[in-house]
């Protein structure tokens, strides 16, 4: 156990702080301008996407009567739409087609992929980049194609997928806590 916890701490500590500051700033900008934050990923990253979107939408609130909120949706959660798209258009279309339906220029697309090479994630980021959205890749190891395609990246320096997913979750919780404190300081 101690060895694993040390590896988690080392990987979390290896994330470039400047990229986390940019990430936090982009989320604050989305809030200020009322843009929607779309979060996506596959497998464990899909679970992190769902959890992070929920935490942004609800976990940043100090009071459920709060009128102003983060507009966040996980593109991993609409099973009927995902399976219809996968069946009719192919699995690589599931996120891009949802962006075509719901997203607007100025929105933020947060793509989570440990390998950075998932076809459906890459296709969604390409679409978002071409249609005036801000893209953030949250990845691991060498970051794959996502590292070079997303406008902004946060990279966990580990090739161990389970470890990277755990650190992604830690980082997302840290960001949500910071945003909750920030929103409270705004008095909203």
3D structure, described in words:
The chain is α/β, with parallel strands linked by helices and 188 residues long. The chain has a single domain (2-186), classed as 3-Layer(aba) Sandwich (Rossmann fold). 58% of the residues lie in helices and 14% in strands. The protein contains eight helices and five strands. The chain has a five-stranded parallel β-sheet with strand order 2-1-3-4-5, sandwiched between helices. α1 crosses α8 (161-186), α3 (44-59) runs parallel beside α8 (161-186) and α4 packs across α5 (94-102). The radius of gyration is 16 Å and the shape is globular. It starts with a helix and ends with a helix.
Estimated helix fraction: 55-70%
Low-confidence stretches: none
Question: Could you say which structural class the secondary elements and strand pairing correspond to?
Answer: alpha/beta
- List the secondary-structure elements in sequence, H or E: HHEHEHHEHEHEH
Q: Write the CATH architecture name.
A: 3-Layer(aba) Sandwich
Counting DSSP E segments of at least 2 residues, the number of strands comes to 5
What order do the strands of the largest sheet run in, or round the barrel if closed? 2-1-3-4-5
Query: What is the H level of CATH, i.e. the homologous superfamily?
Result: Glucose-6-phosphate isomerase like protein, domain 1
Gross morphology: globular
The biggest beta sheet, please? 5 strands, parallel
């Amino acid at each position: 156990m101690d060895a694993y916890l040390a590896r988690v701490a080392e990987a979390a500590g290896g994330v470039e702080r400047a990229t986390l500051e940019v990430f936090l700033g982009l989320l604050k900008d989305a809030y200020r301008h009322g843009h929607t934050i779309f979060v996506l990923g596959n497998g464990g990253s899909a679970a992190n996407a769902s959890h992070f979107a929920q935490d942004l939408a609800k976990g940043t609130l100090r009071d459920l009567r709060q009128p102003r909120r983060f507009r966040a949706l996980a593109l991993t959660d609409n099973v009927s739409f995902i399976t219809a798209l996968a069946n009719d258009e192919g699995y690589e279309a599931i996120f891009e087609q949802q962006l075509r339906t719901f997203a607007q220029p100025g929105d933020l697309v947060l793509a989570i992929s440990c390998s950075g090479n998932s076809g459906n994630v890459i296709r969604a980021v390409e679409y978002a980049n071409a249609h005036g959205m801000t893209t953030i890749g949250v990845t691991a190891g060498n970051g794959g194609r996502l590292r070079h395609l997303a406008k902004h990246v946060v990279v966990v320096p580990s090739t161990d997928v389970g470890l990277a997913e755990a650190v992604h979750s830690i980082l997302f919780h840290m960001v949500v806590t910071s945003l909750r404190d920030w929103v409270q300081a705004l008095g909203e």
